[in-house]
Amino acid sequence: FDVGPLSAGTHVVAATGVTDKVSKGQLLRVGADGAMVAIVTLVTPTDGALAAVAAAPDGAAACGRRAVGDGGDRGWLVGVDSKLALRWQRLVWGNEVSACTALATRPAGGWFGAGHGMADGVLRPLVFATNGAGRPLWTRQLAGAGGLAGAHALADGVAVVGMAMGADSAKASLTRLSADGRTLLAQQVDLGASYSAWSQIGLGADGRLLLVGLASENFVSGPQHGVVWRADPWGHAACAEAGKCGAVMAKACADGDGCTDETCGAASGCVITPHASACEDGKACSVGGSCVAGK
Asked: Comparing C-alpha atoms, which of 216, 237, 234, 238 is closest to residue 225?
């Protein structure tokens, strides 16, 4: 389940129901008083499930997974209006098996999504961005094995969290990507147990990150302990490791230049790095521009 705002004080819930022993994605509209207003089951030729939802100016989007003809699953993204009427649906990622597990509204319109997919027999973390019609702008496979469970849009991109898997252990992972999908921060932390994972991420009014997750010596049969971290925008949870970044908010490093990436180093403070990705120069008669020397 996941819940997000819809319109006029109402909310939408993404869920999964079962009809004739086949799972189906469902959307529930809940009124301001908590009463159920509508339940919509998405009709698909195969089974499906919804796991996450995010707001849109005049509706919402939800994502999950849907079975396809070759016996695998694909990440599934749907868009609905404020009455939950289906506008469009898309399959995302071409992996043999994939699922979208987290969704966040892009400040520029559209959505960021996160989840996982199989590649060469290994579970890999995946991230995508779409426009307002759900059409892909970019997709990224993050380094290493693992999956993603939470996403939060930032002013300069998106932060995603989940689990990075090793041979006999796992660490909680935090990755920040720019608006066009470049990795700005990749962090893995041990939360005091052999298996650790972040499940949700939030953003405070001061720009600091709130991370929620689990730690356990055995996720299957052992006790699980909830973990909550409050970190600076750069992922530092302790003043000793934050260094000069402890007093630096994300917007303090922003230089307003779309051709640079802004991060923070504990020893140096703000770090401005030029990149050579595509850019828009604002001229109607030019296309295919790219950044050169940070401009």
From this structure: 216
Q: What pTM does this model have? A: 0.86
Q: What is the residue-level pLDDT of the chain in tens, covering all 295 positions?
A: 788 888 778 888 898 888 778 888 899 899 888 898 888 888 777 789 999 999 888 889 999 999 887 668 899 999 999 889 999 999 988 777 899 999 999 999 999 999 999 888 899 999 999 999 999 999 999 999 999 999 999 888 999 999 999 888 999 999 999 999 999 889 999 888 899 999 999 988 778 899 999 999 887 777 889 999 988 888 887 777 778 777 776 667 777 777 888 888 888 888 888 887 776 555 545 555 678 766 6
Q: Largest Cα–Cα distance in the chain?
A: 62
Q: Tell me how far apart the alpha carbons of residues 92 and 131 are, in angstroms, rounded to a whole number.
A: 13
Give the angle 132-133-134 at the CA atoms, nearest 5°.
Answer: 90
Question: CB neighbours (10 Å) of residue 274?
Answer: 13
Confirm if 220 and 214 have CB atoms less than 8 A apart: no
Strand partners, 2: 14
